[in-house]
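User: For my dataset I need records formatted as: sequence, then structure tokens, nothing else. Please produce one.
Assistant:
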Amino acid sequence: MAKEKSRHIAEIAVIGSGYWGKNLVRNYHQLGALKLICDSNESALENFKSQYKQVETCVALNDVIGRSDIKGVVIATPAETHYTLAREALLAGKHVYVEKPLVLHEKEAQELIAIADKAKLTLMVGHLLQYHPVFVRLKELAAKGELGRINYIYSNRLNLGKIRREENILWSFAPHDISMILTLACEAPEKVHATGGNYLHRQIADVTTTHLQFPSGLRAHIFVSWLHPFKEQKLVVVGDKKMAVFDDTQSWPDKLLLYPHQIKWRNNAPVPEKGEPERVEIAEAEPLRLECEHFLHSFTNGSRTQTDGVASALPTQTVPAV
């Protein structure tokens, strides 16, 4: 049985092995699924050859999609290349994993979804935080009503770098936050307003704030920047029973805290009553490892992926590029 499993999973090619792609290379290799690395940087490929002795390398896309033994293609290249690479891979009959964002234009997303559906192929988008054990637990708590009615959500994703030249900060950072907010809201926003500032390049925003308004009355905002003095990755969910803070820069015991703060009315005036934060026990695991396992499982077992093209196309439809 173990041999059969190994035969089925050792079929992955990773296209793009740079800043983030190298992490995908590492995980798929550890899972015994990595067969080929494709990158235009031949120097980087030489380093991978010495690190992963049994893994093959190439510099051309045709050397990936032309191989019948490659069943799944993992794309970790600049966002502007996602559509072309994913389309070629799908048309060649490969299951495809694309790092977020799926594409930069709605029509391209719909086309990729249609191609994958027609060919019965997996099209998965790398919304990493959907597989993060902390966010999974937060979703469970929200669904069970632990937070009460969710009134407001805000998310900050801030750092000094990594500064991109292919897409702006909204497309680079905010898909994580949009994905989490839409999941917790369980509805699509009816109004979206995004503003940004360009400081390093005339046509590429370095800082954006995005405001979302939902039919239920829930509101949310997202602040992203790669021109920030310190790193912050924080999602705050304000419910009428409890408030939750998912801070991914903290160590595991403190990544998710619940605050049982309440507002009491006294003499017709709102008075806040603060409670001590509650730590939520969550088993530690690498989110990227879980995400990679999910992709392998989805196409080897024919199951629908949690972050498929349809689920991931909503942010590209509702939030415009700045």
